[in-house]
Amino acid sequence: MIIIIKDKATDKQVNELMSWLQSFSVKTNLVTGVHSRIIGLIGDTTSIDVDAVNARDIVETVKRVQEPYKNANRRFHPDDTVIEVRGRKIGGGGLSVIAGPCSVETEEQLMATAIAVKEAGADFLRGGAFKPRTSPYAFQGLGKEGIDLLIQARRETGLPIVTEIMDLSDIDLFADVDIVQVGARNMQNFTLLKALGRSDKPVLLKRGLSATLQELLMSAEYIMSEGNSNVILCERGIRTYEPETRNTLDLSAVPLLRQKTHLPIVIDPSHATGINSLVEPMSLAAVTAGADALEIEVHIDPKNAWSDGAQSLTPEQFKASMRKIRALEKFVDSELK
Ligand code: PEP
Ligand code: MN
Fold this sequence. Notes:
337 residues, alpha/beta, Alpha-Beta Plaits, TIM Barrel, eight-stranded parallel barrel, four-stranded antiparallel β-sheet, 10 helices, binds manganese (II) ion
C-alpha cells in the first residue's frame, strides 16, 4: 500500500500516522521527496481498511498495490487447489462436469435425469432443493425432501451431489451433501459464508449478478478466513444491458481468475445464457478458456420443467454435447496445455 501525504502535514502528524499503521504489524517506509512525502507499507496489509486510511486529514491518496485477499491469492499459494469428493476431483487439470435439473421435482424426474447424466459421462449430480426464485409465487423447491432424493440418486448412481443452501438455518440438512452451492443471490451473505467457513464442506460459490471478480474473491476469502479452503468459484453470467440472453457470460473470468487465484473455476453456461441452444457452444468455449468444470442444467422434459426449462438440455442433447466436450477436453489437454 502506498500513501501520499498532504503537503501541509506536520512531522508529528506523519509520525502519528506511521505508528498507527505499524499497529497492523506492517513496516512503514517514509520517502521524502522535493514536493511530497510518501509512506510505503511493507507486509500483509489485508487487515488495513483503505477508507480508514483515506479518512485521515493528512492523507492525499492511498493505493493498494497488493490484492486485499490473502487465502485465495495465488501469490501466497502458487499450486492449484484440487477439491476431491468421493474420488472425483475439481481443479488441477482435467475437466469435471456437474449436471442435473435446475430443481429437484419428483423422484421419477430426478432418478431418470441422474441416470441419464451419469451415462453421458457427468461426474457430479446437481439439483436444487431450495430454490431462489424471483417470484414468491413460483415453485420454491422441495426443501428437505429434495435433499433426501438427491442422496437417494447418489446411492443409485454413485455421483456426488451438489445443491444450494439459501439460509443458514437449514445448514444441518446439508450434512450429507457433497458440495454446498452458494447461489449468485447469496454471494455476499457474509453470515452464511462465515458459517460455511467453519466447516470443511466444499463450497461452490457463484458470482453475484453484478459482482466484480474482486468481490467474488473477497467472498471466497470470507469462507477461507474461517478455515475452510475447499472453495470452488463459479462464473454464471453477469447482468448487462443485453436483453437477448438471460445474463452475459464473462468468459475472460477464467484466465483472469486463474492468474489471481489457485481456486478451481467452474462455468455455468445454463444460467449465463438462459437459452438451450447456447449451452453447448458456451460449454465448448469454456473448455477452451481452461475452465476446471462445467455446471449444466439437464431435464428429462424441459418443456414441463418446474424451473429453467428454457435453458435445460434434454438427456439426448446433453449426451451429444458431452461427446464434443470430452473430445475438446482431450485436444486442449494434449495440444493447448
Ligand atoms: C442454480 O444453479 O440453481 C442457480 C439458482 O443459479 P444462480 O445462483 O447462478 O442463479
Ligand atoms: Mn436454474
